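Cross-check.
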Amino acid sequence: MSPRRGYRFSRRDTNHNPIVAALEAAGVAVRDLSHVGDGVSDLLVQHRKTRALMLLEIKRDDKAKLTEAQEKFRKEWPVTIVRSVAEALAAVGIEVA
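Predicted model, tokenized:
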């Protein structure tokens, strides 16, 4: 079976796994979408307080820029950019002391 046109293996940011682990440990429902490509955000999560679904894009630091495909996706879908475990937890309504 050959990969679909335009498919490429994505590289995950180094903070991807720690963010996923922290969200799951906090009881957040997480679906990893990082393999989808085409600018789709890295994670689909359920906000802890409102139960609303959210898209999170993980970037390694403040210098990391969105790709052209990610910018296009962000114009059509609400995406929250997170760069750390604390930012990811805060995005889903969990305060870190």
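The chain has three helices and four strands. The chain has a mean pLDDT of 87. Passed to J.P. for a second look.
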